[in-house]
Amino acid sequence: MAMWLYQMNQGQWSPNKYRLDIWEGERWVWPVGKKLSTDIPTPGDRVVFFYALAGGIEPGFYGWAIILDWREDEEDERRMYFRPVAPSDHLKMYPWWDDAAAKIANDVRGKVKMGTLWKVPDDLSTAISDGVTSWLGHRPNESNR
C-alpha cells in the first residue's frame, strides 16, 4: 500500500474552508494538477493532505484518507476519489506542524515544491504515520508553530 502527499494551496482553498468541507467518512473527488510521479494511485493507497507554509499562515498535515479510485481521461484530466479517515477531524483542528513535519514534507517534495501530488517513499510514509500518531498525543501550542 503506497502513500501519496496531496498539497493544497491556502490561496485557492483556505484551511478554514477545508475544516468546514471535509469530514471523516464522506466520499470526495478532487482534481489533481501537477503529479510528480510516474506511478498511479490505486484503490487502498493512503493520501495525506498538506498545506505548505508558502502562501499562508496555517501550514501542516491536515488529514489523511483512503484512495477509492483514480481516473485519467484523454485531455490529461486526473481525478482522485477518496474517503477521509480518522484522525482527520482532529488534524484539521490541530494540524501537525513542527520541525519534523516541515522536514518530512520537504523531503517528500524534493526540489519541486510546487505541485499537487507526490508519491511518498516508504521510509517517509512510516515517518508520516509515526509523526501523526505522536502529534495526536499532545495539543499543539504557539511554541510549536
Key features?
6 strands, ph1033 like fold, six-stranded mixed beta sheet, 145 residues, globular, single chain, alpha+beta
What is the compact description of this entry?
Helix content is 27%, strand content 29%. It is an alpha+beta fold and 145 residues long. It has one domain (3-144): ph1033 like fold (Roll).
Secondary structure topology:
Layout: E1 3-8, H1 15-21, E2 28-32, E3 46-51, E4 60-72, E5 78-85, H2 88-93, H3 99-109, E6 117-120, H4 122-136
Parallel strand pairs: 1-3
Antiparallel strand pairs: 1-6, 2-5, 3-4, 4-5
Helix pairs in contact: 3-4
Question: Describe it for me?
Answer:
The protein has 145 residues and is an alpha+beta fold. The chain has one domain (3-144): Roll (ph1033 like fold), CATH 3.10.590. 27% of the residues lie in helices and 29% in strands. The protein has four helices and six strands. The chain has helices at residues 15-21, 88-93, 99-109, 122-136, and strands at residues 3-8, 28-32, 46-51, 60-72, 78-85, 117-120. A six-stranded mixed beta sheet has the order 2-5-4-3-1-6. The longest helix is centred in the last third of the chain and has 15 residues, at 122-136. It is globular, with a radius of gyration of 14 Å. The mean pLDDT is 90.
